[in-house]
Write a structure and sequence with these properties.
Elements lengths: L2 H6 L5 E3 L8 H9 L4 E4 L5 H14 L4 E6 L5 H10 L4 E5 L7 H6 L3 E6 L2 H10 L3 E5 L5 E2 L7 H11 L4 E4 L5 H9 L4 E4 L1 H4 L8 H9 L5 E4 L6 E4 L2 H10 L5 H8 L3 H7 L23 H21 L3
Parallel strand pairs: 1-9, 2-3, 3-4, 4-5, 5-6, 6-8, 8-9
Antiparallel strand pairs: 7-11, 10-11
Helix pairs in contact: 2-3, 3-4, 8-14, 11-12
């Protein structure tokens, strides 16, 4: 038992990233059933679709699960009300000011965690009353912080400043990575990319195959003028780079991005024109596996690495 397993009443300090177009009820319930904490990704769901996924998740697991809510999306008030109405007990918030909704959720008896990319925002989240923070390094997939702090540097700096539990994210997909993060001071880990390439992920099979085919250097953080996002280098990514060569305006970038490009890429499997969000750790993911197998493998590696660490001497 540690602070994270106690906080969420789970077996292992492993949290699944609430990724858009990947994190439906099948993935969330599978992670929870395997001993971690599954999260439904509300960012890619209309309010009533989210309600349906919450209800299905409650039927698929009797273990704790939560909902990840990026606060930059519309319908936020409706989403929060559905979360309360459906009795969700854990909410992870991101991409916004934690003060906006933390008090409301805490009043309803909900455990609140906020995703941060810097010590400054970790302190703001703690001040807002959250129960824990996810400190997400620059290696992570999807939308990312502008600071470009790596997980290796971010975790100990955040741990030094806050008194609440710290969950490490960004570049973690193995038991060895999990142990490294915890040695740096993390109380638990959040894994996104590893679970995106799982059988239960709601992502398109073509996207999952692209994840396991992505090698070192195959992703890049871009579109910082809009919202920094780490993408696999495909035609759309190359089009963005070509546009940058012309010194584009923000409107030019928005025009190229358009609407629903992430859905096209990750959910519909358009590997050419779609937005393919994944972390740098994709270079270490070589197979699409069931969630139970992933968590068993991570925990076995973690325990083996612990033993190796005990016996290690200079």
């Amino acid at each position: 038992m540690n602070t994270v397993t106690t906080l969420f009443s789970i077996k292992y300090p492993i949290i699944q990233g609430g990724m858009i177009w990947n994190s439906g009820y099948k993935l969330a319930s599978a992670v929870s059933n395997a001993g971690g904490l599954g999260l439904i990704g509300a960012g890619s769901m209309y309010p009533e679709v989210l309600r349906e996924h919450i209800q299905k998740c409650k039927k698929a697991t009797d273990k704790p699960f939560g909902v990840n809510v990026p606060m930059l999306y519309p319908n936020i008030e409706e989403i929060m009300n559905i979360i309360v109405e459906e009795g969700v007990k854990i909410v992870f918030t991101s991409a916004g000011n934690p003060k906006t909704w933390t008090a409301f959720l805490k009043e309803k008896g909900i455990t609140v965690v906020h995703v941060v990319s810097s010590t400054k925002f970790a302190l703001k989240a703690q001040e807002a009353g959250v129960d824990a923070v996810v400190a997400e390094g620059f290696e992570a997939g999807g939308h990312n912080g502008r600071e470009e702090s790596t997980t290796l540097t971010l975790i100990p700096m955040v741990k030094e400043k806050v008194t609440i539990p710290v969950i490490a994210a960004g570049g973690i997909a193995t038991g060895r990575g999990m142990l490294a993060a915890m040695i740096l001071g993390a109380d638990g880990v959040q894994m996104g990319s590893r679970f995106a390439a799982s059988v239960e992920s709601s992502a398109h099979d073509a996207f999952k195959e692209t994840i396991i085919a992505t090698e070192e250097g195959g992703t890049q953080l871009t579109l910082k003028e809009l919202a920094p996002v780490r993408l696999i280098k495909n035609k759309f990514y190359n089009d963005v780079q070509d546009l940058y060569a012309t010194c584009p305006s923000v409107d030019d970038l928005k025009s190229l991005l358009g609407r629903a490009r992430a859905k096209r890429g990750m959910f519909e499997g358009d590997l050419v024109e779609g937005e393919l969000e994944i972390g740098q750790i994709a270079g270490l993911i070589h197979e699409v596996k069931p969630v139970q197998e992933i968590i068993d493998e991570v925990m076995t590696q973690f325990e083996e690495a612990m033993k190796m660490n005990e016996n290690f001497k200079f």
